[in-house]
Structure formats: C-alpha cells, structure tokens
Design brief:
Blueprint: H1 11-41, H2 47-69, E1 89-91, E2 98-100, E3 104-106, E4 111-113, E5 118-120, E6 125-127, H3 132-158, H4 171-174, H5 176-214
Antiparallel strand pairs: 1-2, 3-4, 5-6
Length: 230
C-alpha cells in the first residue's frame, strides 16, 4: 500500500513546523559558513565531513516533509467491517463513525486515526499507524544532525587549529561568537527534546512487542489495513 498524502489545515501547526524549518536552515547555513568550509580550505578537515553534514541535513528535511504530509491512518467514513471482526470495532462518540479499537479521535484534525500515538504540532500532523515509522526516522535524523552540528561547534573552539584567513567584512564573521552561541543553544534544546521523545517512543514500541509475545490473545489486532478498504 502506497503512502497517501494528507494535509492538516492548522495555523498553529504551520507556525511550529516553520520554526523547525528555520532552525534547520540556520544550522545548515551557519555551521558550514563559519566552521566547515573555512577549516576545509585550510586543510584541517577532509571534504567527506562536509558531504556527510549535507547528507544528514537532506535526510532530516525529507523525513520532516514525509512525516508531515503522510496520512497517519485516517479512517474512511464507511469502512467495510468483516463480519467476524465486529467485536473489535467501536463507535466514536465524537464523529459517530465506527473505528477499530486502539484508534483515537484527534480533535485538532477532526477525525479518527488508527493506532494514534499523539498529535505532533512540530510536524503539523498526527502520529499514527501509517506514519509512525516516518516520525521515528525524523527523530533519528534530527538527533544525528544536532549531535553532528554541536560536535563541530565544540571542535571549532576547542580542538581545531585557529583559522589564519578570516574575512572580517562578513557579518557572520564579525558576530561569530553570538551566532554560534545561538546555534549551540538551539542545538542543545533540540537534542534534549528529541532524545526524550525518541526514548519514550522506543520504550513504547518495545513494551508493545514484549506484551505481544507474552500475551498475544489480549492484544487488539483489528487495526490491520485489510479491514479498512474503502
């Protein structure tokens, strides 16, 4: 089954996602301009490190877009419920539609989502059955990019040799310390938040699969795609 496109009309979510894109652009522009390219030109670092930085940045942005526009598992208005599976379905008291158990109604999106984890304003979308793995990808690439950027910021001041050629006419060079401090602050905040979120997501997945092994008869398996043909 291919991924279905899904857009959420929510100004609050657009602002949150715009903030994430701004932080991404800030680091993708500032870190290479102040750290990577100058140290590469003076032979302090190999070019492969710059390629890796941009590669992770692209993966991070693509993961953000995919998690944002992918249908999280929205239930159709008239799902075909197999006769033998009706006991696994229930009526939503908000949208008055039948839904599988473990589905939840998102008040912000206005519909039920299969295996909904939460509504994430940072991707302006719900995290559900069909895009949960994309959300985990986004967390992983964001944490990787943040660690990479913070590592180079640290090395720039405490490990790399001092730069010999500095163009003081450039704004970013004249205000380098303030700009790098802001980048480091945003990076630390991002790293702490993503690490906590990624940890809780992994613990939830491990706990679910552990219960699935120990108590398979008590788990609701009615959220399978085969029950939701429109």
């Amino acid at each position: 089954m291919g991924l279905r496109i899904h857009f959420v009309v929510d100004p609050h979510g657009w602002c949150c996602m715009g903030l994430i894109v701004f932080v991404w652009l800030y680091n993708v522009v500032i870190i290479p301009k102040i750290v990577l390219f100058p140290h590469y030109e003076e032979g302090h670092i190999p070019g492969i490190l710059i390629i890796i930085f941009y590669g992770i940045s692209i993966f991070c942005l693509v993961a953000l877009l995919r998690a944002s526009i992918t249908d999280p598992g929205r239930l159709p208005e008239n799902p075909k419920i197999p006769h033998g599976e009706r006991e696994f379905w229930e009526l939503c008291n908000k949208c008055n539609l039948m839904r599988p158990k473990r589905s939840h109604h998102c008040s912000r999106c206005g519909h039920c989502v299969r295996r909904m984890d939460h509504h994430c304003p940072w991707i302006n979308n719900c995290v559900g059955e069909d895009n949960h793995w994309l959300f985990l990808q986004l967390c992983f690439y964001t944490e990787l990019l943040t660690c990479y950027a913070l590592m180079f910021s640290f090395c720039h001041y405490y490990y790399f040799l001092p730069l010999k050629k500095r163009n003081l006419d450039l704004f970013v060079i004249r205000h380098e310390l303030a700009i790098m401090r802001l980048a480091a602050f945003m990076g630390i905040i991002m790293l702490v938040g993503i690490t906590g979120l990624f940890y809780t997501q992994l613990i939830g997945i491990i706990t679910y699969h552990w219960k699935k092994v120990l108590q398979p008869q008590k788990l609701d398996l009615s959220c399978s795609h085969k029950y939701l043909h429109e």
